[in-house]
Write a structure and sequence with these properties.
The chain is an alpha/beta fold and about 250 residues long. The protein is about 35% helix and about 20% strand. The strands form two sheets. The protein has a six-stranded parallel β-sheet with strand order 7-6-5-9-8-10. The chain has a four-stranded mixed β-sheet with strand order 1-4-2-3.
């Protein structure tokens, strides 16, 4: 049975300020909860309408109506867990780093996190004004990948200036990502805001400006969805690097 304090805490975690004050966030659904339990994240509490789904002693049995009171989903998915936010980890610069500037859409960030994991990215660096990676919509759309990728929030301008790694940026106009011959195991790939792209402040810090060429000669659509762009660019980086290794 849920206590009033538990309900109050869980509801407060929908708010970024409260998440970071409490150093906790919510994960929902059996698959995502299981992946976080099996990761390095520390579980604070697990609530379930079917405790047999988890072979754990400390599962709190609740009713479907109680789950409805605390879930952030339109259609609650049987299980809700509170996890502790991890301590900040150092970046692994031996792999390709993805930097995201001023990302606003939680669904975009969640999908990007999942896409990055598919292509072997270990670290994502977000600008300080990007959406919080522990936002419930980000957690939901990342589908467990957040439990395995290190997300760091930094001043991107200072970060890029401090690094000697090769820096790539994605733009509407630039060198085709398909024709670019550079094959790298490590470096930094920057993606900009959904509406405005990479800012002028960051543009001048980049070594290579890339674009995904349009094969449709019409003027629409004006651009690709950001998460789709990330997938295409990382796919090309992965393909070229693997081709070089096989030579």
């Amino acid at each position: 049975m849920l206590s009033k304090n538990e309900i109050k805490l869980i509801k407060s975690l929908k708010n970024k300020k409260q998440r970071h004050l409490n150093k906790m966030f919510v994960v929902e659904g059996r698959k995502s909860v299981s992946e976080f339990i099996n990761s390095s994240f520390d579980l604070h509490k697990l609530f379930s309408i079917n405790i047999n789904d988890f072979n754990m002693i400390d599962v709190n049995q609740i009713s479907k109506s109680e789950l409805g009171k605390i879930s952030f989903l339109t259609n609650p998915d049987d299980h809700l867990a509170i996890f502790k936010m991890p301590d900040e980890k150092p970046l692994n610069e031996n792999y390709l780093l993805v930097c995201l500037e001023s990302i606003n859409d939680p669904g975009n960030l969640g999908t990007i996190i999942r896409t990055c994991e598919w292509f072997g990215i270990k670290d994502i660096v977000c600008s300080l004004d990007s959406v919080d990676c522990y936002n419930p919509k980000v957690v939901q759309s990342a589908m467990g990948s957040l439990s395995r990728i290190n997300i760091t929030y930094l001043d991107l301008s200072k970060f890029l200036k401090s690094k000697s790694l090769k820096k790539f940026g994605t733009f509407i106009a630039g060198e085709s990502v398909y024709e670019n011959k550079i094959s790298v195991a490590k470096g930094i790939v920057v993606f900009g805001n959904e509406a405005n792209g990479i800012s002028d402040d960051l543009r001048v810090l980049l070594d290579v400006k890339l674009t995904i060429p349009r094969f449709n000669h019409d003027s629409y659509p004006e651009s690709l969805n950001l998460s789709n762009s990330v997938g295409i660019v990382l796919s090309e980086f992965s393909r070229k690097f693997n081709e070089k290794k096989s030579l």
